[in-house]
Amino acid sequence: MSPRAVAAMAASLLLRYPDGPALAALPAIRAALGELPSDLAEPLGRVADHRAGTDATALAAEYVELFDLRRRTCLYLTYYTAGDTRARGQALVAFAAVHRAAGFLVDGGELPDHLPTVLELAARADEAGWALLREHRVGLDLLAAALAAVGSVYRYAVEAVRSMLPPPGPAQRVAAATLARSGPPREEVGLQPFTVGGRR
Question: For residues 12, 14, 17 and 21, what is the CA-based torsion angle, rounded to 10 degrees?
Answer without folding.
Answer: 90
